[in-house]
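wait is this the right file?? whatever heres the structure
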């Protein structure tokens, strides 16, 4: 049994005082013979035995009273209580759940506001000379201060400044850091307070680790208290913006684009009257705001909003849903790359006096710019896609300037003949083009030699092939040609998944020969097969190279080898559109991220310094980032051992940008950071019985509210036996007095 003041046990030595009085302080007398006393001897002996019993019982009661008094002063406590004496110093660690479910309203206050009030009550209940350390925790822990752990006023100011993030709940990081922080204190007693809405998913995310940390706290006699912030019986009406899609495959200027917004009810009850609105570059598009009458639990609803794309560049899109009980997941950000022109370079052999369809680039050109070249030249000139064709032997590095995507269509690489195939200088620059974010599409054909391609474009060369090319495959027959298999396409594929519904046209795409894409070779690591044939051979493979991507078609994109892959415009046009949209979209610096992700940008030209522009408040007014908070970042490094600019300061959803010092967003990379939707997968709070089952014991759980301070004080003192010992002492003294009176004698 632990004692809060063990030195007081030495007071039990006072029990020797009544013993000394009893045995050594007796009345001294000289016996004198007297005849009548002989007659009374027998009576005296009988009376003496009774008096000795009474005296010894009184002695025992008085000794026990002194022992109880010493025990009370030593303040015994239960083994299960970590604690400290009610007035002894404590090393306290306060952990705040800052996941965005803490922003849900619970009556007049949010859960985080209730947590702050409860934390101040905990500080007021701490004994003098106690220390305080404060942590914020969602799926990661962050030490907040105070600078002086004994400065409670500073701690209270810090508590009031805590804000929610866009992260999801995970209690393990917070418990781990809090336990380590408590050990750095000097007080004999340690206490950890976790202020949270006790979301069940936060315990389930890493349940074995959470249980182990709670057990470690028990073993180290560290008091662990969960402060429940919010009514566990209250159900939060909640919807999340889970997706936004552009119906325009390739966004370009001077167009009005439809956006399909998907909203999901993640709460337990129907939600009514949800308003969905759109912002472009911080400017609200009020006229297209719409309202969803009702969304049932677990159901999704789609609405279509439109916005005008007037300027080229990275446009910032934000979709909002208002009208539920939790704001944290009511927004979705997206960066849209808008272009004046998409410039494509087609490296292929011309038709040279033969029918136009014999040109290696004819089908791709018609899919990119679907106009009649004779009658619609004015439309071609105004169209947002522009093509330039060049023969393989004549293409040079200068042809890549200003291009967004390159097609190699049955284009050989140069070997011994200086007049045949693409020059090495072009191939070298092509690799840099792709690494810088450009798109590359390679189509097979009779002039593509697998050995030469592996040597020049493979891993040992330019590193552009998704997978190595294997030995020639046996040719198929016209009666039983190779065919793409629509069922081999992943529905989530952001290119071919969109053309999967064109199954009838896919079935018509036949060819009698194709290259062997060896996806089982050791050098195939990093490559991805996107489409297979009906006999399970790889037909289309891709690989990300730097910031760009390469798509390789094992079949021709012209009519060689009897290919009908691009012959049907109803299939070739959407396929080409989705390919161009995907590959050119990679060239937009930045992109979409989830809260907490590291933001990384490799600037094309190294500047003296860089800044992170943090999200702006939702005002409905556009800005270029000059009036938003800026945080200095490290320097980038170019050349050998290049080092990009990075920042991990993305805990809140919003629009971020990494720019040169003093620059605008147009000069850097823009990032759309979205909430971690795992937070709203399950908003149910854990019950006390469920928590006991998860942790293996029932921890202390206190409800935040008006009685928090009283509950903390009672918890700190309820483990002591002092009051019960004092009560026993009082009863004992009353019994001793009664017995002394009964015996008819005083001390």
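ok assuming it is, sequence goes like this
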């Amino acid at each position: 049994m632990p004692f809060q003041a063990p030195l007081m046990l030495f007071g039990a030595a006072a029990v020797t005082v009544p013993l000394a009085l009893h045995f050594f302080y007796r009345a001294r007398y000289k016996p004198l013979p007297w005849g009548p006393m002989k007659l009374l001897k027998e009576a005296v002996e009988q009376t003496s035995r009774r008096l000795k019993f009474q005296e010894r019982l009184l002695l025992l009661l008085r000794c026990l009273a002194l022992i109880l008094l010493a025990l009370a002063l030593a303040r015994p406590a239960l083994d299960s209580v970590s604690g400290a004496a009610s007035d002894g110093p404590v090393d306290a660690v306060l952990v705040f759940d800052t996941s965005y479910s803490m922003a849900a309203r619970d009556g007049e206050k949010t859960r985080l506001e209730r947590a702050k009030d409860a934390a101040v009550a905990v500080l007021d209940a701490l004994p003098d000379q106690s220390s305080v350390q404060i942590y914020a925790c969602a799926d990661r822990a962050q030490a907040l201060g105070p600078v002086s752990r004994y400065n409670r006023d500073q701690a209270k100011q810090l508590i009031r400044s805590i804000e929610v993030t866009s992260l999801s709940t995970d209690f393990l990081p917070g418990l781990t850091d809090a336990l380590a922080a408590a050990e750095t204190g000097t007080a004999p007693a340690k206490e950890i307070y976790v202020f949270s809405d006790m979301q069940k998913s936060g315990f389930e995310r890493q349940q074995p680790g959470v249980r182990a940390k709670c057990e470690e706290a028990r073993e180290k006699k560290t008091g662990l208290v969960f402060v429940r912030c919010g009514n566990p019986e209250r159900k939060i009406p909640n919807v999340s913006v889970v997706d936004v899609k552009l119906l325009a495959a390739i966004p370009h200027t001077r167009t009005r684009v439809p956006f399909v917004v998907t909203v999901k009810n993640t709460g337990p009850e129907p939600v009514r009257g949800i308003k969905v609105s759109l912002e472009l570059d911080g400017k609200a598009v009020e006229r297209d705001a719409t309202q969803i009458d009702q969304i049932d639990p677990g159901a999704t609803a789609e609405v279509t909003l439109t916005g005008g794309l007037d300027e080229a560049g990275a446009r910032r899109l934000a979709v909002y849903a208002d009208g539920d009980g939790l704001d944290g997941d009511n927004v979705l950000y997206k960066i849209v790359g808008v272009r004046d022109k998409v410039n494509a370079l087609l490296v292929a052999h011309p038709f040279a006096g033969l029918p136009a369809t014999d040109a290696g680039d004819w089908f791709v050109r018609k899919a990119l710019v679907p106009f009649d070249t004779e009658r619609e030249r004015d439309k071609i000139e105004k169209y947002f896609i522009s093509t330039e064709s060049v023969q393989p032997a004549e293409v040079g590095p200068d042809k890549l300037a200003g291009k967004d995507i390159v097609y190699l269509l049955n284009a050989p690489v140069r070997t011994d003949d200086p007049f045949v195939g693409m020059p090495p200088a072009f191939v070298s620059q092509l690799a840099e083009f792709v690494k810088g974010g450009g798109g590359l599409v390679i189509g097979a054909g009779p002039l593509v030699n697998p050995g030469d391609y592996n040597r020049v474009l493979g891993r040992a060369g330019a590193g552009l092939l998704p997978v190595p090319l294997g030995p020639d495959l046996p040719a198929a027959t016209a009666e039983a040609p190779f065919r793409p298999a629509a069922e081999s396409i992943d529905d989530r594929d952001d290119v071919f998944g969109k053309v999967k519904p064109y199954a009838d046209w896919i079935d018509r795409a036949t060819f009698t020969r194709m290259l062997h894409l060896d996806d089982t070779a050791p050098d195939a690591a990093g490559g991805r097969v996107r489409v297979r044939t009906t006999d399970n051979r790889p037909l289309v493979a891709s690989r990300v190279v730097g910031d760009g991507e390469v798509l390789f078609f094992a079949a021709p994109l012209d009519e060689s080898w009897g290919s009908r892959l691009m012959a049907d415009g109803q299939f070739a046009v959407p396929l080409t559109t989705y390919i161009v949209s995907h590959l050119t979209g990679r060239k937009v610096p930045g992109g979409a991220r989830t809260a907490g992700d590291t933001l990384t940008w490799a600037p094309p030209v190294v500047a003296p310094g860089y800044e992170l522009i943090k999200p702006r408040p939702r005002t409905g007014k556009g800005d270029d980032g000059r009036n938003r908070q800026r945080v200095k970042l490290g320097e980038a490094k170019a050349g050998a051992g290049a080092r990009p600019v990075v920042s991990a300061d993305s805990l809140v959803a919003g629009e971020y940008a990494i720019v040169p010092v003093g620059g605008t967003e147009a000069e850097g990379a823009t990032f759309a950071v979205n909430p971690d939707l795992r937070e709203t997968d399950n908003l149910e709070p854990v019950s006390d019985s469920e928590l006991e089952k998860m942790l293996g014991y029932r921890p202390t759980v206190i409800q935040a509210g008006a009685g928090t301070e009283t509950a903390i004080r009672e918890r700190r003192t309820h483990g002591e036996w002092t009051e019960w010992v004092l009560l026993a002492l009082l009863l004992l003294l009353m019994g001793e007095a009664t017995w002394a009176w009964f015996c008819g004698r005083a001390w």
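The chain is about 25% helix and 25% strand. so i think its the right one actually
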